[in-house]
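[Discussion] Sanity-checking designs against the backbone

I'm trying to build intuition for which residues belong where. Below is a structure token string of 277 positions. I'd appreciate it if someone posts a full sequence so I can compare it with mine line by line.
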């Protein structure tokens, strides 16, 4: 697959093909500085969430970068435990207030069910449908340029699409070599749902796998670059996180090489060092 700087969503909106992840970056100096470094390095896509608690610093960094608002693609997410039409509208207003922007590029339902619920989450179908109706309205009013979901599997996506007829533009899921999420990908692709790959390094665990080191040696790239290139060549949009300036820069420098199909297939088949979520 050809790798470009942007993916095009099903509504025609261009989305920069690598997003800077901000989970677990504390609000304040660290979130501000790492986001600013990312923008200075050339990232034009920032992934935050109300649950990360850092929207304020992320928004400040975007303003401090001096880059015009319409050149930065900003994603945020509605907290997993907050569902419903009114709640979604209210929380969206809070998110853009904290970010200091007047629209979002992408807004996601963070998860099909609250994090502390240990069922399959299908009992939240009605709550997700009501939430999704608010997202559709905000989208149609022009307050969000694209809308989507996160951590949704086919059994969560299906009721929402059936009830509203509105197919999410994006599903953001845990996806990296060793966690290819075939079922969700197979469901989403024919519908034109772009898959965003969160935790593209399995929050760091992936680096322990010996195949990553072998591929890094072969291509003379970092293990992180191998993982990101795999994601891009497989058609997924990766969201690498780092608070380290050199790594932030390294993670964007993945457009000047290509991996062969045989090596991509080897990466498809690896087992993550620890059980994945
Ligand atoms: N929607 C969801 O439910 C959800 C869930 C999880 C994640 N996400 C999104 O996906 C993003 C990324 O996932 P993640 O935060 O789990 O982590 P990740 O990007 O998979 O891995 C981050 C870890 O890798 C290290 N790292 C980054 N670049 C490196 C490099 N070039 N060389 C060596 N180490 C490197 C980082 O270290 P340092 O930071 O110390 O440099 C950090 O320990 C999140 O920030 C968030 O935006 C979304």
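Best answer:
Here's mine. Compare freely.
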């Amino acid at each position: 697959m050809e790798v470009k700087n942007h993916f095009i969503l099903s509504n025609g909106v261009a989305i920069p093909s690598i997003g800077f992840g901000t989970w677990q970056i504390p609000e304040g100096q660290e979130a501000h500085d790492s986001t600013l470094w990312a923008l200075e390095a050339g990232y034009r896509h920032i992934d935050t969430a109300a649950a990360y608690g850092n929207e304020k610093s992320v928004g400040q960094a975007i303003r401090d970068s001096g880059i015009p608002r319409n050149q930065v693609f900003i994603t945020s997410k509605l907290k997993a435990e907050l569902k419903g039409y009114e709640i979604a509208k209210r929380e969206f207003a809070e998110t853009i207030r904290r970010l200091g922007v007047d629209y979002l590029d992408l807004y996601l339902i963070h998860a099909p069910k609250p994090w502390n619920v240990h069922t399959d989450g299908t009992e939240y179908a009605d709550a997700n449908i009501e939430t999704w109706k608010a997202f559709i309205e905000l989208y149609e009013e022009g307050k969000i340029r694209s809308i989507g979901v996160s951590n949704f599997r086919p059994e969560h996506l299906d009721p929402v699409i059936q009830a509203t007829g509105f197919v999410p533009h994006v599903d953001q899921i845990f996806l990296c070599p060793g966690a290819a999420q075939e079922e969700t990908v197979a469901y989403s692709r024919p519908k034109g749902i772009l898959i965003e790959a969160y935790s593209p390094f399995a929050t760091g665990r992936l680096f322990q796998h010996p195949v990553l080191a072998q591929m890094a040696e072969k291509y003379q790239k970092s293990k992180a670059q191998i993982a990101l290139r795999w994601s891009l060549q497989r058609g997924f949009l990766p969201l690498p996180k780092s608070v380290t300036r050199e790594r932030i820069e390294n993670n964007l420098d993945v457009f000047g090489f290509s991996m062969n199909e045989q090596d991509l297939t080897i990466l498809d088949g690896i087992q993550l060092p620890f059980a994945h979520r």
